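lol so apparently i was supposed to do this last week
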Amino acid sequence: MVARIRKAVFPVAGLGTRFLPATKAMPKEMLTVVDKPLIQYAVEEAVAAGIEEFIFVTGRGKQAMEDHFDLSYELNETLDRRGKTAELEQVNEFLPPPGAIKYVRQREALGLGHAIWCARDMIGDEPFAILSPDDLVLGEPPCLAQLVQAYSETGGNVVAVMDVPRDQTDRYGILDTPNPQDRLAEITGLVEKPKPADAPSTLSIIGRYILHGSVFSHLDRHEKGAGGEIQLTDAMARMIGTQPFHGLRFQGERFDCGTKEGWLAANIAFSLARDDRRDQTEQILARYR
Ligand code: G1P
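anyway here it is w/ 1-O-phosphono-alpha-D-glucopyranose bound
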């Protein structure tokens, strides 16, 4: 029996420079797709995968996110007084139980590996999930639930992967694998943001991971990698060979909502996927074609 995945880390300290000026005074994780902020999608995806503890690695200027997962007494009171029951439910139904969300601050932007390392004491030695909220995935079952399933099959580390055009390998962690076409690609090497000519494949990691707690012993070294940052990919690379490690070609479509084009595409795709929004969205699209 493999250990249950109970905890998830959400690295949410990033500045969102690719989405300025929108993210000047607002966390990028609060950008909305249709009618929900990115961070809510990520938390709901984690809940659907059985996660019970939610660890936000946050930073300065991110308070709107904490407020989103708190009670809003004034709003609740007003909605209640006006008999707006549906709206009242909408603002409260996604809240995890009191105490289930924990916050830790990453004081300096030293890289994704460093952000995850900041959560070490809250994770301990158990396998856990990581979800990057700007990677939004439209799919059923939700992406993290697919990873949990793959983890229960393999009992080791699993990361969500997809093919990218070769000229984009320098934006991702890239797999070296003997079976890139399989649903579960065995990972024999990992490189962070290689130049297209140096990339061992075009199979790239997107922001969903299930990792053993031993990753922290590698992150403890604070070794700098690509871009001078402490990279999660480098710590993961050190775990290869110690336990099974696979890339899961997940079912679904991933949107990089940290970019303007990814965010726009996500808004269209998520609107079209919703019964209550589809007709109206098609009409709008027809108008601007
Ligand atoms: C991070 C990881 C990279 C991964 C990517 C997915 O990069 O370092 O390995 O492929 O997320 O979105 P970042 O986008 O933070 O530069």
